[in-house]
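**Sequence with structure:**
===
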Amino acid sequence: MKTISTLLALLIFLFLGACTHTNVASEEANYIECTEPRPKICTREYRPVCARVDTGKRCVTTPCPTIKFKTYGNACSACGSKKVYGYTPGTCKKQSVLN
């Protein structure tokens, strides 16, 4: 019985963790997801974007910020980072984090 409870808790944790950044993306109509292959060289034009960046944190308790928002100079430089999921045009209103 204990093994089944542990397994169920682990499956719920993995399911919720996998959905974190996609839920944020679906809430905004202007969200653009980064695609592969990632850019290696970018121009230096200034067209700021607000990127969703993976913090690298994976926790069991809350609060645990798994995504932060960061302003990049342009979409190319944002998606050049493998930690960036995607972006919305314009600067970030707040340099904040999401759980």
